[in-house]
Protein backbone atom coordinates (compact mmCIF):
# COMPACT_ATOMS: atom_id res chain seq x y z
CA UNK A 1 0.00 0.00 0.00
CA UNK A 2 3.00 2.36 0.29
CA UNK A 3 3.08 2.82 -3.48
CA UNK A 4 -0.50 4.11 -3.48
CA UNK A 5 0.25 6.68 -0.80
CA UNK A 6 2.62 8.38 -3.28
CA UNK A 7 -0.36 9.09 -5.54
CA UNK A 8 -1.93 11.21 -2.79
CA UNK A 9 0.77 13.92 -2.90
CA UNK A 10 -0.28 17.47 -2.08
CA UNK A 11 -0.80 19.65 -5.16
CA UNK A 12 2.12 21.78 -6.33
CA UNK A 13 1.25 25.48 -6.10
CA UNK A 14 4.44 26.90 -7.62
CA UNK A 15 7.70 25.84 -9.21
CA UNK A 16 10.84 27.75 -10.17
CA UNK A 17 12.45 26.67 -13.44
CA UNK A 18 15.42 28.42 -15.04
CA UNK A 19 14.89 31.45 -12.80
CA UNK A 20 11.18 31.82 -13.58
CA UNK A 21 8.55 31.08 -10.97
CA UNK A 22 5.30 29.61 -12.25
CA UNK A 23 2.25 29.66 -9.96
CA UNK A 24 -1.23 28.26 -10.28
CA UNK A 25 -3.44 31.05 -11.64
CA UNK A 26 -0.65 32.91 -13.48
CA UNK A 27 -1.48 34.12 -17.00
CA UNK A 28 0.69 32.71 -19.79
CA UNK A 29 1.07 32.74 -23.57
CA UNK A 30 1.41 29.35 -25.28
CA UNK A 31 4.30 28.58 -27.62
CA UNK A 32 4.16 24.83 -28.35
CA UNK A 33 7.39 23.61 -29.90
CA UNK A 34 7.56 21.53 -33.04
CA UNK A 35 4.09 21.99 -34.56
CA UNK A 36 3.63 18.27 -34.00
CA UNK A 37 -0.13 18.27 -34.53
CA UNK A 38 -3.15 20.47 -35.20
CA UNK A 39 -3.54 21.35 -31.51
CA UNK A 40 -0.01 22.79 -31.43
CA UNK A 41 -0.84 24.96 -34.42
CA UNK A 42 -4.26 26.00 -33.04
CA UNK A 43 -2.95 26.91 -29.57
CA UNK A 44 0.21 28.74 -30.67
CA UNK A 45 0.15 32.32 -29.36
CA UNK A 46 -3.06 31.86 -27.33
CA UNK A 47 -3.32 33.22 -23.80
CA UNK A 48 -4.20 30.91 -20.94
CA UNK A 49 -4.05 30.54 -17.17
CA UNK A 50 -2.12 27.92 -15.23
CA UNK A 51 -4.71 25.49 -13.81
CA UNK A 52 -2.25 23.14 -12.12
CA UNK A 53 1.39 22.13 -11.95
CA UNK A 54 1.96 18.40 -12.22
CA UNK A 55 5.06 16.28 -11.67
CA UNK A 56 5.30 12.82 -13.22
CA UNK A 57 7.15 9.83 -11.81
CA UNK A 58 10.30 10.78 -13.76
CA UNK A 59 10.21 14.15 -11.92
CA UNK A 60 9.35 16.10 -15.09
CA UNK A 61 7.17 19.15 -14.62
CA UNK A 62 4.04 19.62 -16.75
CA UNK A 63 1.96 22.78 -16.64
CA UNK A 64 -1.78 22.33 -17.19
CA UNK A 65 -3.51 25.39 -18.59
CA UNK A 66 -7.00 26.50 -19.50
CA UNK A 67 -7.20 28.61 -22.64
CA UNK A 68 -8.80 32.04 -22.14
CA UNK A 69 -11.06 31.95 -25.20
CA UNK A 70 -12.19 28.33 -24.75
CA UNK A 71 -15.98 28.33 -24.24
CA UNK A 72 -15.54 25.16 -22.14
CA UNK A 73 -12.91 26.72 -19.89
CA UNK A 74 -15.06 26.06 -16.80
CA UNK A 75 -14.81 22.33 -17.50
CA UNK A 76 -11.01 22.59 -17.57
CA UNK A 77 -10.96 24.50 -14.29
CA UNK A 78 -12.93 21.68 -12.69
CA UNK A 79 -10.43 19.11 -14.03
CA UNK A 80 -12.60 17.66 -16.79
CA UNK A 81 -10.80 16.17 -19.79
CA UNK A 82 -10.63 17.98 -23.10
CA UNK A 83 -10.39 21.51 -21.73
CA UNK A 84 -7.00 21.38 -19.98
CA UNK A 85 -3.85 21.33 -22.06
CA UNK A 86 -0.41 20.30 -20.82
CA UNK A 87 2.82 22.08 -21.72
CA UNK A 88 6.45 21.93 -20.69
CA UNK A 89 7.69 25.07 -18.93
CA UNK A 90 9.80 25.98 -21.99
CA UNK A 91 6.61 26.12 -24.10
CA UNK A 92 4.90 28.88 -22.13
CA UNK A 93 5.68 32.54 -21.62
CA UNK A 94 4.71 34.01 -18.28
CA UNK A 95 2.69 37.22 -18.69
CA UNK A 96 1.92 39.87 -16.06
CA UNK A 97 0.96 37.90 -13.01
CA UNK A 98 -1.68 38.65 -10.43
CA UNK A 99 1.24 39.37 -8.09
CA UNK A 100 1.94 42.50 -10.16
CA UNK A 101 5.19 41.24 -11.72
CA UNK A 102 5.72 42.12 -15.35
CA UNK A 103 7.79 39.43 -16.97
What secondary-structure arrangement, pairings included, does this model have?
Blueprint: H1 2-7, E1 14-17, E2 20-23, E3 27-30, H2 38-43, E4 47-55, E5 61-67, H3 73-77, E6 85-87, E7 92-94
Antiparallel strand pairs: 1-2, 3-4, 3-7, 4-5, 5-6
Question: If you had to describe this structure to a student in words, what would you say it looks like?
Answer:
The termini are far apart. The radius of gyration is 14 Å and the shape is globular. The protein has a five-stranded antiparallel sheet. The chain is 17% helix and 33% strand. The chain is α+β, with helices and mostly antiparallel strands. The longest helix is centred in the first third of the chain and has 6 residues, at 2-7. It has three helices and seven strands, in the order αβββαββαββ.
Global outline: globular
Low-pLDDT parts are none
Number of separate strands? 7
For the biggest sheet, the summary is:
5 strands, antiparallel
Question: What percent strand?
Answer: 25-35%
- Put simply, the count of helices is 3
Q: How far is it from the N-terminal to the C-terminal residue, by CA?
A: 44 Å
Run of helices and strands? HEEEHEEHEE
Sheet with the most strands: spatial strand order:
6-5-4-3-7
